[in-house]
Amino acid sequence: MLLNIDAGWIEKRLNDGFSRDDLKAILLSSDAEADLLYSAAREVRRELFGDRAFIRAVIEFANTCRCSCKYCGMRTENTEIPRFTLDPDEIVSVAEIALENGIKTFFLQAAESEEYNAEWLGDVIRRISDMDMMVLLCVGIHRIDDLDYWYEAGARKFILKHETSNKELFEDMKPGFLLDDRLRWLRILREHGYHIGSGPLLGLPGQTVDSLADDLILMKDLNVDMSSVSVFLPARGTPLENYPVGDVDLGLRFIAAMRLYLKNTLIPATSTFERLRKDGQLLCFGAGANVITVNMTPPRLRDDYELYSERFYVGLEHARRTIELAGLQETTESDLLGE
Ligand code: SF4
User: Fold this and answer.
1) Ligand 1 atom at minimum distance from 75 CA
2) Does 111 sit in the ligand 1 pocket, CB within 6 Å?
3) Which CATH class is domain 52-328?
4) Residue 248 Cβ contacting ligand 1 at under 6 Å
5) 151 partner at 20 to 30 Å CA-CA among 43, 197, 225, 314?
6) In the chain, what are the domain boundaries?
7) Could you tell me the pTM of the whole model?
């Protein structure tokens, strides 16, 4: 049974824990209830991290993909988009620009590409790590030996989004892949020393509030260090190109639920919120987020990294202004985490 949410309700759950029904109640909360939840989420963030947030820089370095995810413009069947792999020197020079601008976390993101090998990426990681930057990877599933190689090169964090905890939906959306394999892979990453990140794509066709509650429980079970939610936006040339966008307000409630339930996790204000609503990323910070990612993919290529169509590209000025408007102070990841 879903209960009315008030300050006492929230405090009791923060002390005693949240049931699955409690998580559903958060996701289904009224606007007035959501305001209380956002306020409590900001308080949890304040207690754990202070009123601080950090900026990381992402470069999307390869968009060739062997996968056929139905929601993604880079799926292998999409012959419309030009494919690219960046030159290592260009990747490193972008990292240098990020560092000159005070950003100390560099996020190397790519589709599940077979255009580069472990040594190629290891060399890039080592060069950036030697600049005293934190290296975060989001490059899909590779060989276990590669994980160790990249860890030795200096990578410490790895994001592998589970997209949905619903097995049937996952296997429909990602043909040829099994949810169990992806979860096993997240656990392997942890065993090999990485901080791990995961999260759902909110608004997939057929997704339910029950399955979103299960996403939260799954992330708790995985003990993620980083948790995120993106709101579905259709990409041209995909089986989902005519499907409606996801619900931003539900996404904001999901962020608050992550902060209240998972507590000690890094939560990004993702660009899909800003793409769908002006000041959407500011609203994410208001719901408990504490990270924002600046897109530093070279402008000549970034439209070809088509996770969804007509992307919003977060620039440094926008990121800094959003942190300031949220009443937060900018810091670095290592300072925030005391690493
Ligand atoms: S979501 Fe990732 S793995 Fe799936 S098709 Fe797109 S780039 Fe490839």
Assistant:
1) 5
2) yes
3) alpha beta
4) no
5) 314
6) 52-328
7) 0.97
